[in-house]
Write a structure and sequence with these properties.
Radius of gyration: 23 Å
CATH superfamily of the largest domain: Alanine racemase
Structural class: alpha/beta
Order of helices and strands: HEHEHEHEHEHEEHEHEHEHEEHEEEEEEH
Strand content: 15-25%
Helix content: 25-40%
Number of helices: 12
Distance between the termini: 53 Å
CATH topology of the largest domain: TIM Barrel
Number of domains: 2
CATH architecture of the largest domain: Alpha-Beta Barrel
Shape: globular
Number of strands: 18
CATH class of the largest domain: Alpha Beta
């Protein structure tokens, strides 16, 4: 969006403010669909990236499926209109009771633990189909915290445990209809996906009743100016050819599934905040803003880069600033960043704020969560109101009589 339009939204809805562009979400979705043209394709939006009901309804209308990792996300997906057969539930470390609850709701189940799979087989036998998540032991991802396919990862059943896995399946007559992997996030190299695909497709021949193969996601998006992202078109061309050859060898056409989250929503999001203070020390010029890592934790948690522009002074001369939040501990969004000259009350815009930002926000320091706005049909629609102090107290029980 242009600076003037963003300033108008900041004026109308206040700051801090999340702004999402539905057209960008749709463009990213269609780009994936077009890249894998000619296959039975299922793009399942990974809603942990951004789980607002309006966003879920938008992807449901586009024809996407839904990737969920908790029973609450399953329930949110059902409320948003997704039918159970279009929701895949891929938990990690949950109780068996939660898996049973997902079965009652009728969604697709994806299990990544041999012990849980054995319990599942004992309970359901062949009566309820299940997908299994394999760990290919591939180190992939932009940060060690988002690498999930390596040998020390808690995720997935080791590819080297395939024989043990098939023994459990045979003993309990488990109906395995899907095979899944996810190696990590922010993967640039198309070769990593192709390497992982070879391992998964090779393992697929151990399972005779497959209906789909799910390659997870992890596509890299461009965060910095002139940054590069995963070449989806190259991946689509190469993997489509390979998957068609696999299906021919397997004996039937299977569905190819992906579970993108960041790829679909990251670039759609802009985060707006106001500059409270400019503070110059002996070494640094700080721009202190009306937000913190309670709203936008990625730079502190993942060391991630988010491009910041001063939309109140877009044509000004550049100076070097360290942009910091108002949380009472180290709370830095950008170190020694070139930004056009900043003054108090200027509005700063953080790019790539659609994925894993509001979803990871908190009320730390008893700060209130921001509002969220969705741009749809050239209009701004409020989809989450700004919290009030009463929202912080709504679940607290009054025990003042004790004192």
């Amino acid at each position: 969006m242009k600076s003037k339009a963003l300033l108008q939204l900041a004026e109308e809805f206040g700051t801090p403010l999340f702004v999402y562009d539905a057209d960008i979400m749709e463009s990213q979705y269609k780009r994936l669909v077009n890249a894998f043209d000619g296959l039975k394709l299922n793009i399942q939006y990974a809603c942990k990236a951004l789980s607002n009901q309006a966003v879920l309804q938008h992807f449901n209308a586009l024809g996407a499926g839904l990737d969920t990792v908790s029973i609450e996300e399953v329930q949110l997906g059902l409320r948003a209109g997704f039918t159970p057969d279009r929701i895949i539930y891929t938990p990690n470390g949950v109780s068996f009771e939660e898996i049973q609850e997902a079965v009652k709701l009728g969604v697709k189940i994806n299990i990544d633990n041999l012990v849980m799979l054995e319990k599942f087989g004992s309970e359901y036998g062949s009566s309820y189909p299940v997908c299994v998540r394999m760990n290919p032991h591939i180190v992939a991802g932009g940060n060690h915290k988002i690498q999930v396919g390596h040998i020390d990862s808690k995720f997935g059943i080791s590819i080297h445990q395939t024989r043990h896995l098939t023994r459990i399946i045979e003993a309990y007559k488990i109906h395995v209809n899907g095979l899944h992997m996810h190696t990590g996030s922010d993967i640039l190299d198309v070769g990593v996906f192709l390497q992982g695909s070879e391992l998964l497709l090779e393992a697929a021949f151990h399972f005779k009743e497959l209906e789909y193969v799910d390659f997870g996601s992890g596509f890299k998006v461009a965060y910095k100016p002139n940054d590069v992202s995963t070449n989806i078109e190259e991946l689509g061309a190469k993997l489509t050819e390979r998957f068609k050859a696999f299906c021919k060898e397997y004996g039937k056409d299977l569905e190819l599934a992906f579970e993108p989250g960041k790829f679909l929503v990251s670039e759609s999001g802009t985060f707006l905040c106001k500059v409270n203070v400019i503070k110059q020390t002996t070494a640094t010029v700080f721009a202190g803003v009306d937000t913190g890592f309670n709203h936008f934790i990625r730079p502190m948690f993942y060391d991630s880069y988010h491009h910041i522009t001063n939309i109140s002074n877009p044509e000004g001369a550049e100076r070097i600033y360290t942009v910091v939040g108002y949380i009472c501990e180290t709370d830095t969004f950008a170190w020694d960043r070139k930004i056009t000259e900043i003054n108090e009350n200027d509005i700063l815009a953080f790019q790539n704020a659609g994925a894993y930002v509001f979803a990871m926000s908190s009320n730390y320091n008893s700060r209130l969560k921001p509002a969220e706005v969705l741009l749809k049909n050239s209009k701004a629609h409020l989809i989450t109101r700004r919290q009030t102090l009463e929202d912080l107290l709504v679940n607290q029980v009054d025990v003042s009589h004790l004192f």
